[in-house]
Each structure stands twice: as structure tokens, then as C-alpha cells.
Amino acid sequence: MGQKTNPVGFRLAVRRNWQSRWYAGKKDFSRLLVEDQLIRDKLMEKLKQASVPRIFIERASNRVRVEIYTARPGIVIGRKGQEVEKIKEELARLTGKEILLDIQEVKKPEIEAQLVAENVALQLERRIAFRRAMKKAVEVAMTLGAQGIRIQCSGRLGGADIARREWQRKGRVPLHSLRENIDYGFAEAQTVYGKIGIKCWICKKESDNN
């Protein structure tokens, strides 16, 4: 049987850093972990239109530093920083702690695996043919400097009665090389026929860490 592992978790401490960076004792660990998940869920729901691939959380005593990576920083910041203040207040109410927000711009959203998967999911929900959506995403990523890309769709593709899996790949995507800069993203499309899962792996150059 095929033994599969998440490409991000597989590379932790070698190529990747943890998305939550803090230390807690046995008593507090589970509570803080749930709090992290609540923060992420709240932000993902609020910033659905802002193309957010990842959120980093750091803690120090009663402070929580949240680093949001986004392809559209203007939407997150809002006019004169009003949105940022609203987000801070909501998270402070949710956690009861002091919140520090840091917003980072994603320079090339077309080679950000999570955003590519979400983009394909959005197209499938709009009833665009899955092969066409995959092909376009692959071509755009390769044009913008990705070394390789693989996209996989699973589910009732094209409304077929039997669910199946189809994928497209271009360039090199060496999943077993820990030193390679592999980015991974997963999204789900809620179509009329049911859920379709989209997985995306992108092999980037050393310099494309953002």
C-alpha cells in the first residue's frame, strides 16, 4: 500500500518552520492549540476574499503575534487601517489577550500552492471544465518560474456517476527530496454533484520562499 505523508510536515525542521511557534506546559498546551485553530478559522472566514495561503502564530506571555500572508494586503488593511483594527478587536475578544498583527504580502500568488488549489476549486464551482482549469494553473505557474507543478482533482469529475482521480504534471516535483522547496496546498470545491478535492504540489526555486 502507498504510504502518504503531508509534504509540509515531512519537511519540518529541514526546510519548513512550524506555523505555530510557542512553548507551553502539559496543562496549557491543548487549550492554546484549540485557541490557535479558532484564530485561524476566524481569520480564514473573515479574509476569504484576500487570498491568504498561511497564518503564523507566535506567543509570549499574554501576547499573541499573528502574521498573515496575503496576496491582497489592501483588503486586509482596509481604508486607513480600519480593517486591521477590527480584526485585532475581534481576536482580542476571542482570546482575551493582546493581539499584534503583522501583514506580509505574497509576491507571486500564482506559484503559492494553497492559492492555486483554491483558484482551481473556485473555477470548478463556476462549472468550468476541470481539465481546462488544471491546465491553465499549470501553465501560469511554469511561466512565472516554478520548477515543477502537479495538480490532482478527486471526486465526481464532470458530474460522472463514479468518482475518480485525475492529475496533471509539468516540470520536476521530487517529493522524496527533503532539501527541495516543495509547497503543498489543498482545497475543496462544493459542486452540484458533491465535493471535489484539489491537491497541489509546487517545486519552487531556493529564492521563492515567500
Whole-number mean pLDDT: 90
CATH topology of the largest domain, anyone?
GMP Synthetase, Chain A, domain 3
Unreliable stretches (pLDDT < 50, length at least 5) are none
Biggest pleated sheet: 4 strands, mixed
Tell me the number of strands. 8
Helix content: 25-40%
Coarse structural class: alpha/beta
Number of helices: 6
What does this structure look like?
This protein has 210 residues and is of the alpha/beta class. It has 2 domains: 96 residues, K homology (KH) domain (GMP Synthetase, Chain A, domain 3); 96 residues, Ribosomal protein S3, C-terminal domain (Ribosomal protein S3 C-terminal domain, 2-Layer Sandwich). The chain is 34% helix and 30% strand. The strands form 2 sheets. The chain has a 4-stranded mixed β-sheet. Strand 7 and strand 8 form a beta hairpin.
Quick overview of this protein structure:
The chain is α/β, with parallel strands linked by helices and 210 residues long.
Name a few traits of the molecule.
GMP Synthetase, Chain A, domain 3, alpha/beta, 210 residues, 6 helices, Ribosomal protein S3 C-terminal domain, four-stranded antiparallel sheet, four-stranded mixed sheet, 34% helix
Q: Helices, strands, pairings?
A:
Layout: H1 7-10, E1 20-21, H2 26-46, E2 54-60, E3 63-70, H3 73-77, H4 82-95, E4 98-105, H5 113-125, H6 130-143, E5 148-155, E6 164-171, E7 181-191, E8 194-204
Parallel strand pairs: 1-2, 3-4
Antiparallel strand pairs: 2-3, 5-6, 5-8, 7-8
